[in-house]
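PROTOCOL LOG
Step 1. Enter all chains and additional molecules of the complex.
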Amino acid sequence: MSKNQPRHEWPLWEVFIRSKAGLDHKHAGSLHAADAQMAIENARDVYTRRMEGVSIWVVESKYIHASDPGEAASLYEPAQDKIYRHPTFYNLPDELKHM
Amino acid sequence: MTVHSFQEHFDRKIDDEVNIEPRDWMPDDYRKTLIRQISQHAHSEIVGMLPEGNWITRAPSLRRKAVLLAKVQDEAGHGLYLYSAAETLGISRDEMLDQLHSGKAKYSSIFNYPTLTWADMGAIGWLVDGAAIMNQVPLCRTSYGPYARAMVRICKEESFHQRQGFEIMLTLSKGTEVQKKMAQDALNRWWWPSLMMFGPPDDNSPHTAQSMRWRIKRFTNDELRQKFVDVTVEQTNILGLTVPDKDLKWNEERGHYDFGVINWDEFWNVVKGNGPCNKERLETRKKAWEDGTWVRDAALAYAEKRKARTAAQNAAA
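Step 2. Run joint prediction.
Step 3. Record the structure below.
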């Protein structure tokens, strides 16, 4: 890199790890790396020193889109009064099996 | 939500023990104080690799060497978890490192003491990591989400650090006269600085009140320091060593150990930059950063090259 260019930081990546017994990738944290391959190797070094994971996903942080916590009330409002989505809402006789 | 101001919503989250997350509104001072605390915690982990790194090549056995290497590697990882957490608050890694290298940001003053013998590895693991654990376990419930989650991770890893340190002290204290003396000497040198790790006394700690109101801090400096003394004196008895404090005495009425006066002049002097190793630690960090510039630049240049090559291949295909 030429001396005249401004110093560039390595981009920031978010790391998701799925454990051996796990069903889904969980967010483990973030790290800086020059590219995806380095990000995966760094994630292995930083987040799986104790065999915490069998699968690593890395995504550049700028590609993560998140919901706005300020909008949470209105965003989740439709689900708030629909308790009939839960199995416990239904009153069924005790003799009923396998349901 | 429409009626409450952002401040009230924030205050209610704090009162209800709900975590504050990166995209939540937060008071400027809350953000500033967390950036300072988390980044300085991160710097402490990285600088903390140096006193122990000093003994890796001279560990007395292969097992001890592998274990010490793993501990120091963990400290690097801890620094990285904390830098990541701090970055969620809107400060960049480069900015934080600039603050460390310029002296604007501090790190835990315990790491400005030299490691003179192998027994220091035992004393550090047992006392310094022990004090850190006492401070860090409550932080697992600190109000800022990313910081709390980093602390949970760190605490899981920290307990092997303390156990390997105590095991070293145990082996030495059950060994030859020379080994016993070396262990006692290390305890003599690391005891008081470890007590200072909990920070100034409560009546001289201006940040504490606000930090506790914001649930960043859960216990005061003196509370944690007392707990550390109570726990560690019992451990010292198992080692058959002596705490270097003639005023140390069990107080039946209080249910705690009374201990001697800490030399706060020494503490402030080291914090100000006049400790035995301040200059050396900072120079080592600056050199590592500067010497590594070509590696960081080369990695970026290589990544660009690979990207261009792939794009060219796709275009030709």
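Step 4. Note key features.
The mean pLDDT of chain B is 95.
The two ends of chain B are 55 Å apart (CA to CA).
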